[in-house]
Request: fold
Amino acid sequence: MWLGTSMGGMIAQWLGVHAPDRVRSLTVMSSSPMGHDLRPVWARALAGEPADPDDLPPPSPAFLAHRAAGLPPGVESNVALFRVFNGPVRPFDEPAARTLLELALSRATDPATAANHSRAAWTDAPDLLAPLSSITAPTSIVHGDQDPVYLLGHGEALAAAIPGAVLHVVSGMGHVMTSPGLPEEVADLIRL
Reply:
């Protein structure tokens, strides 16, 4: 059983394609189809240019505005980011998010490496371009209808690309589970 969220969801897809003997089931949450370079989509959105109809949807204006603000690294900017990640519908548990982010930062040996996160998801490695239709493991796609990073169209594209995948749309969920009760709600959607 593999569960991956966001970039972890892309890693789970990679495993489903390239190591199917190690994957009994997949749950891909708040993610996008691996192998899609979203940098041009994000650049057009940041420039205020219209989206290409063949593209997956760009991030929300709130997420783009946060990225454009160029806040200095640290707990405060991460809390602000997680507030955006949470989405506008469900309540944001700021104390819990702050505690989580402080703990993560205290354990980090080189916090600057966080800048490599997006680069890892968008590398030009040929094995990221393998067709998702080759995934044979039972797969659930869990996606919030308020995800500001990978809008719902990304979850729909994943479900359409993986044979037999089931899409679970979670009402009000953003890109993270920083709303009270949300982790328990989502736990019931994990493919065992």
Summary: The chain has a mean pLDDT of 89. Helices lie at 7-18, 39-46, 61-69, 75-86, 94-107, 117-121, 152-161, 182-187. The CA atoms of residues 139 and 165 lie 5 Å apart. The chain has eight helices and four strands.
